[in-house]
Amino acid sequence: MAFKIIASQCTACGACEFECPTAAIKFKNDTYIIDAKTCTECDGHFDTQQCAAVCPVPKTCVKA
Length: 64
Ligand code: SF4
Ligand code: SF4
Description:
This protein has 64 residues and is mainly β. The protein has one helix at residues 50-54, and strands at residues 3-5, 25-28, 31-34, 61-63.
């Protein structure tokens, strides 16, 4: 139960980082990554995955 970021599509805009309710998103090695152990798919916080909702690049925050 986690989302992932497609690194080749991520523009490193940073929009997703602060929207994540579990602070699962971090900047590392020139891109943003989601910690699969921390990501809850926003369960219990939001009805939709916030990273995917705010990401300006389609299909970049996706189900892992
Ligand atoms: S799905 Fe939700 S909990 Fe998981 S990384 Fe995205 S914003 Fe964070
Ligand atoms: S919002 Fe999308 S493009 Fe921006 S840092 Fe997050 S995954 Fe990358």
